[in-house]
Amino acid sequence: MPNTKTNPQLRDSIKALLRDSLAWIESEQLKLLQDSPYEGASNAEIKLFAALRGTSRSISELSRYLGISRQAVHQTVHKLVERGIVKLQPAESNQREKHVVITEKGREVQRMTAEHFRTIESKMAANIGRKNVELLR
Fold it and tell me: Has this prediction a pTM greater than 0.70?
């Protein structure tokens, strides 16, 4: 596997730069979760919660969207259910299919996350300028 640290063409590719930026954003988000009721949330939990995008989605939809197995989605959803952030409900059209639904506590997490992203975007703007942050949108 090529080493992106020693190969400038790979290190400076848009894919590598975006991956590095995403890693920085995720680490900043984990820092902001410290000393909150959601401290200790895993990246998998954060990504799955973000994939809900404020609506309910089936386990199958989340699996396809995230590119992971249904079993992995089930495990992560179970952790979020234990935290009280989401709940599982049978789908209206198919009682065997489960939908992941955001709880009121989950809505609080969404509000907190929105505030965190404003903080992270402010840090980004300080580094690359507000105009460049807007271009990234």
Answer: yes
What is the structure's pLDDT at 102? 96
Residue 56: domain span: 8-136
Question: How many domains does one find in the chain?
Answer: 1
Q: What single-letter amino acid sits at 49?
A: F
Question: Which residue in the block uniquely carries the two structure tokens 């059209």?
Answer: 93
C-alpha–C-alpha distance, residues 45 and 94, integer Å? 26
Spans of the chain, pLDDT less than 50: 1-3
Assess contact for 66 and 74: CB atoms under 8 A. Answer: no
Q: How many C-beta atoms lie closer than 10 Å to residue 40's C-beta?
A: 11
